[in-house]
Amino acid sequence: MKRREDKRLAKKGVSLLLTAALMMGLTGCGKEGNNQPEEGTATITPTIEAGKEVTPEPTAEPTPTTAPTPTEVEKEVRTDFYISAIDEELPSLYEAYTDYFSIGVALTASELFNELKVDVIKDHFNSMTCGNEMKPDYLLDREGCVVAGTEECPVLNFKSCDGMLQFCMDNGIKMRGHTLVWHSQTPDWFFMEGYSNKKDAVMVSKEVMLARMENYIRQVMEYVNTNYPGVIYAWDVVNEAILPGDGDADGMRVQDSMWYQCVGPEFVEKAFEYARKYAEPDQKLFYNDFNTYEVAKRQAIIKLVEKIQAQGNIDGIGMQSHIGISSPTLDDFETTIRKFAETGLEIQLTELDVNLDSSSEADLMKEGTRYKRIFFLLKNLKDTGAANVTNVTIWGLTDDKSWLNKDGLRYPLLFTQLLETKPAFWGILQDEGIPLY
Ligand code: XIL
Prior knowledge:
Blueprint: E1 17-19, H1 20-27, E2 76-78, H2 93-96, E3 102-107, H3 115-124, E4 127-130, H4 136-139, H5 142-148, H6 159-171, E5 174-182, H7 206-227, E6 232-239, H8 258-263, H9 267-278, E7 284-289, H10 295-310, E8 316-319, E9 322-324, H11 330-341, E10 346-355, H12 361-383, E11 389-394, H13 423-428
Parallel strand pairs: 3-4, 3-11, 4-5, 5-6, 6-7, 7-8, 8-10, 9-10, 10-11
Antiparallel strand pairs: 1-2
Helix pairs in contact: 7-9
The chain binds (3S,4R)-3-hydroxy-2-oxopiperidin-4-yl beta-D-xylopyranoside.
C-alpha cells in the first residue's frame, strides 16, 4: 500500500525542531497552541484550517562565529507537540511501523463524512475497526426476523457498516471485524422464541441458539466477504467471555451472558468452529478481552484459547488495552504479552486508549511517555522474536469522540478535537521530545 508517500518523515527535523538551547530560551516546554476542547463533542468544521497556525515558524538560529565542537552540538528536540494533522509534513504513523505491525483506528460511520478526518485517517492508519457498526445489535433486524419467522436463521441488515467497508475497500485499508459473539450489545430477544421482546418471552433451546449462532456468523462472513472481498483480515470471534469470580470454575462470564446461560460454556468453542468454517482461509480468528494483565483473567484466557487452539480454530489473542496512566504497570503488560505469545498465537492490541484525569500539560506529556513506552516495548518484543504482535488499534481518532467520555472528557487518544497531534502521537513515533521514562 502506497498512500501519500510525499508525506513521509519529511520535515520533522527542520521546521518544527529547535535546539535545546533555543527551546529553553524561546519557547519553554508548554503546550503552546493547544486548542484542547473544554467540553462537549462539537463536530469539527473546516475552520479547523486555522489549527495550522499552531506551529510557530522557527526563528533564525544564531550563526555560530566558530564551528561548534562535537560536544557543543545541541541535540534537536521537539518542543511543540500540537501540530495540525492536516499539515502536509507530518510523518505517517502506519509507515513508521510498516516493518512491525499495522496501525489501526476505531471509528464511527459518521466520522467518514468529515473530509478532514478522512485525510488524517488515510495518512496515519492502515487498519480500521467499526466502533459499533458491526456488532450484533446493529446487524440484527428484529422486524425481519419476526416476519421471516425462521427460528433457526436470523435476518440481518448491513446498512450500518456498508459505508465503512466500502471506504476501506476504496482506500486500501484493512478492517478488523468486530465483533461476532459478545454478551454486550446483543439484544435479549435474539435468545428468545419467536424473537420476542416481551417480558414473558421464553428462551430458545441450546440447539436452536447454536443454529442461530451458526447462521449469524455465516451470514456476516458471507455478506462481507462477497461484497467487500479482501477487506477483513481478522475477526473478533468472541469478545469478553472470561470474568473470573462470576460463578464458573473456568472463569467464564456467567451472570450477564445470555450466551452462557442459553448454550453453556461451550458457546465459545462453537463460535470458533463456525467462524473457521465460513471465514476466508487468510482471515485470522481472534479471542478478544479487556484487563488481560490481571493474573486470574490471563490464566483463564490462556486455558480457554489453548483448548480452541487444539481444535485448530483460533489464530490470535486480542488485548483490548483500555489502560490508565500508570496502571497496569508496563511489567504486568509485558508479562501478559509474553505469556500469550507462548501459545504461539498472534497478539493484537485491539482497543488501545489511555484514560486521563485531566488535560494538564504534565498529564498529556505523561500520556505521551506511556504511548512511547508501550510502542517501544512492542517493537522490542517483535525484534527479539518474543511475541508476534501484528496490529495495534487506537480506540478512536479524536479525544472528543472517545467512548470514555461518559462523566467528563478523558483525553485518551492521539489527536485533539481540532485534529492536532498530541504528545501521545509523537510518543508512538518515538520522538526525542517525549521522555521514555
Ligand atoms: C464501545 C463503543 O466504543 C461505544 O461507542 C459503545 O457505546 C460501547 O462499546 N470493549 C469492546 C468495544 O470490545 O466494542 C467497546 O466499544 C469498548 C469496550
